Amino acid sequence: MRKNEKGFTYPLTLCVLILFLLFFSSHVERLLTEKEMAHETALILQQDYYFLTTVKKIEKLYQSTGIQLKGSFKYINGKMDYQAETPIGTSQKISFTLRLNSGETVIGRGYFDIKLKRMVKWLEMN
């Protein structure tokens, strides 16, 4: 018998292993990216919810008793501070500062119409 030492098993196994590692690493990277995006999306939705809830509370205060110049609302994962400026004409500017427990701070401004007693414009500063 003749010995055949050319061999094809090792290169074939090596190629299959490299393809598997490339496939596996790409899926792991995609999973980590999706996980990070889901976390960021949840954080943004939570911020929007806190701003919306605070604006609705401020509108109710404004319609019933009038608004205080400074105040804050505490939430589970953060604290919302607001500060109202003196009215100019028929509009009043209120600055909102959201401080989350994670250390993130978001600033927004709302413009309220005194006659309508509602918010007419919203700006988020970042």
Automatic annotation (TrEMBL):
Pfam families: ComGG. It comes from the Bacteria. InterPro entries: Competence_ComGG. This is Competence protein ComGG. The lineage of its organism: Bacteria, Bacillati, Bacillota, Bacilli, Bacillales.
